């Protein structure tokens, strides 16, 4: 039997973050796809093997889980340069979008070609034990079961077309097991436990906590008490940062005539250390502070209202942690609002990477623990 490799994958709206094996490989790809009708032309084909695969992901995806099957896609950085690039729309369900599956399967295939799975000529047979997650709202609606069943029990094939180093390779992906976790619960696990699920934050473990996870398309507020997520009190909202990033991108285009490739470019402008909120216009450094401040402050006010409403219903809450890529974008605005208004006990992760990788890290902890427990059960002598 083919050995199953651990994969922890967070298909975030901005990008997909994935951790593989024994923490030996991490991957971050912008969550952008563009449909292709034919093999893309390559300038200087002889240089193809000198380029990075992640910058030239060009694949054909075959999977019974897809609504539209056997199509060719550009993915990530390559897709961002296309005129028909697609990012997930606000209001869409992560579990029901083909794009979520395309990104997930592309990431697994990119890992599989580096690994030691069985290979016959140009075909690799890869087997994964996957830990991933969905927004709380979708889990509450029972969509996690449907999402899991789409993945398990089928063979999914990713064929690399004009992709540096991997052109012509095909990867058949099977899942030994798929665990789909609610995102708020995963954030709590990551806060209090290490990679071996040992408690590392004793101060937090018995506190009443809110975790406000601001994503691209949605916001989850998990309510933690007695070391558990209170499913009845936890709430999911159709409010993320994507619409605001799109509005900033559009206003920069209208006002300054500058076309940004993707929402990720907007995030980069807002969050970078140097020249924050500045773009180059015809070679001149130009501030877009007026645009970003107005739009992001408006979104921060809406996010703060969500916090206030949930806190009022859970009045004995001791602290709220803001996590996720959206919290990273809105951090300064939310802090200012809180200082001027209610003064709740709120906390952010100053380490940007920690906040952005929180879900992938949590899924890794949960799926490795699941594998450990399963192997222990198999190894235990049967009771006579």
Could you give the topology of this structure?
Elements: E1 5-11, E2 15-20, E3 25-30, E4 33-36, E5 57-62, E6 71-75, H1 77-80, H2 98-112, E7 119-120, E8 123-134, H3 136-140, H4 143-151, E9 156-160, E10 170-182, H5 183-192, H6 202-205, E11 209-214, E12 219-225, E13 228-229, E14 235-237, H7 242-256, H8 263-271, E15 278-281, E16 284-287, H9 289-313, E17 319-323, H10 325-340, E18 346-347, H11 352-356, H12 358-379
Helix pairs in contact: 5-12, 7-9, 9-10
Gist of the model:
With 384 residues, the protein is α+β, with helices and mostly antiparallel strands.
Mean pLDDT reading: 87
Percent of residues in β-strands: 25-35%
Give the total of domains. 3
> N- to C-terminal separation?
28 Å
How would you classify the helix and strand content by structural class? alpha+beta
Fill in the CATH topology of the largest domain.
Nucleotidyltransferase, domain 5
Largest sheet: 10 strands, mixed
Radius of gyration: 22 Å
Overall morphology = globular
Low-confidence stretches: none
CATH top level of the largest domain? Alpha Beta
Helix content: 25-40%
- What is the CATH superfamily of the largest domain? ATPase, nucleotide binding domain
Specify the number of helices: 12
Instruction: State the CATH architecture of the largest domain.
Output: 2-Layer Sandwich
Please report the total strand number as a whole number. Answer: 18
Q: What is the string of SSEs from the N terminus onward?
A: EEEEEEHHEEHHEEHHEEEEHHEEHEHEHH
Organism: Neobacillus rhizosphaerae
Domain Actin-like protein N-terminal: 8-185
Protein name: Actin-like protein N-terminal domain-containing protein
Domain Alp7A-like C-terminal: 209-348
